[in-house]
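User: I'm writing a tutorial on reading structure tokens. Could you give me a worked example: one chain, its sequence, then its tokens, then a sentence or two explaining what the tokens reveal?
Assistant: Sure. Here is the example chain.
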Amino acid sequence: MIFLIPFILSGSSCLAQKKVKTILQNGKPISTDLFGVFFEDINYSADGGLYAELIQNRSFEYSPSDKNGWNPFTSWELVKDGYGIGTVSVETSLPVHAQNPHYVTLSVEKGGEGVGLRNSGYDGISIKAGGNYNFSVFARQVRGNSAPLEIKLVSKKGIVYSRAFIPELSGEWKKYTGTLTSDSTDAEALLMVVSKSQGVFNLDMISLFPSNTFHNRANGLRSDLAEAIANLKPKFMRFPGGCLVHGDGLTNLYQWKNTIGPIESRVVQPNIWGYQQSVGLGYFEYFQFCEDIGAKPLPVVAAGVSCQNSGGSWRIGGTGQRAIPLEDMNRYTQDVLDLIEYANGPVTSTWGAKRAESGHPESFHLEYIGIGNEDKQTPEFRERFSLIYEAVKKKYPKMKVIGTVGPSPDGKDFELGWKFAGELNVPLVDEHYYMNPGWFINNQNRYDLYKRTESKVYIGEYASKGNRWINAISEAAFMTSVERNGDVVGLASYAPLLAKEGHTQWNPDLIYFNNTGINLTLNYYVQQLFSVNQGDTYYDKIVTFQQSTNPTCLNDFTQAASCVKDSKTGDVIVKLVNAGNEKKTMDIDLSSFGIIKQNALCYLLTGKSDALNSFTNPQNIKPVKTSLKVSKMFTYETLPLSLTIIRIKAGR
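And here are its predicted structure tokens:
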């Protein structure tokens, strides 16, 4: 028999698998939150991505210290049309808000056909004919007679697609709004703000949003990307990172309090991935999005230390980890406690009231919180993690805290992290691994052997190293073992979630996008099929693999299966994976489920090992939904390199 990827297994692994299978019992309760998503602001996932803002550097806060070559005018150009004369400068003396210090002063000596600013967005501003775009700006007139500002959407050649006017400006900072309706489609449009009158103007927070954001929310999310995430039907969403959370040094730790409230008061800062965060997509918006898609929120906070790869120290093996001084840890720990109050506290509480001020008096029903991310297991980390963990446990004893055991599926930090979690009795720990397809096939018994009395597992980041079908099918095989061990694995999420074409810091990713479209990977469809077809009870020995003409232990690992029941619908869901290159026959015994309806739903995903979806061929491979006749006992022949999901109506 020929296999597409090399699988190297020892005889002891095969014996261990057989032994575990004799231990597992039918009807085992598993996690109801098993499959979710992990959002990190990497690969331009937020600004220029999920966050629907179309203007880059809207508050003129870009800096060379954030990225070489950047400055407050990045993405902006001074416009002087029709012999106009004027200048523009950056000021800080009288800002809209102290936490957003920069703004521009536009001085128009001669208006001509317009003097002002032009923004190119994120690789252009994508607009559609008939589309409505909501504009806003903070502005004031410093000198000169009251004069209008003209707002325009234009092509690179200056063709005007839409225009609107602000008739006159106040002498004090004021927010002005309007709507632009485009008469054309252009993937690389520009926004212009100009004046044809002499005067001096201050401008800040120049913003443009499509009106059709996800759920039509103000300061909202890009609808097609948000829908793609929603269509995964995730049980939870982890945010905002990742390495983003503990940042590039202590001054770059993600501070959740800087991301809530009016957008003009939020603190812009660079992230560890080398670009800027407007934090327009902040903690309120994360919580709101979780609620909108029916996912439990899972925020992650730094454990009082920065990333061990801070300052590029990964190039020399680390460690750039820096620790918050112990005398400052009470304040930092209180910030974590305040976050939980912000999510769940009553409107009479300090931070519950701030949530209500944003329009959400009801609790966000936070159940999980992560402390730390892939942190080096140093004494400084352990001391600070303990302080935060004990404070959370004391004030919020029902909160499910998630610890961290390093960036790899084994090794020193992994072993020390698990030992430390056991000493503290941490409810869950966060395992990460990015491995080759063979690893996912070979490690299907990984969690069979975990002790059921220790911390539960959150597989917070995992992916096979690629987006081809061989990568996705190996992940599918592994996911059946995660489901089988849903009593010890409480949560699992593929990572990273999003990546913008031409701006990726990490591959592979689940969803690729550009300004005009999205590419749903084959990995995406595997995740979706598992997530949409989750259950809460696992049943063993429902599927039996028939021996091939050349039976080997190796052959067993190219076949994988799981069976769960969804108690809400009563459906029995059988997942069958064939990761080999020939057809495989599987026997399915449903006799223990009582009455079985013959008409079942069948979802099939199959393709060649090197197949993949792309922007040019986004529908190359996608699931095919059909009906299937089943009985209490039947045989199913799986296609080579296929994932089959059979959803059966059963008696209760």
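What the tokens reveal: The longest strand covers residues 132-143. Residues 157 and 189 are 10 Å apart (CA to CA).
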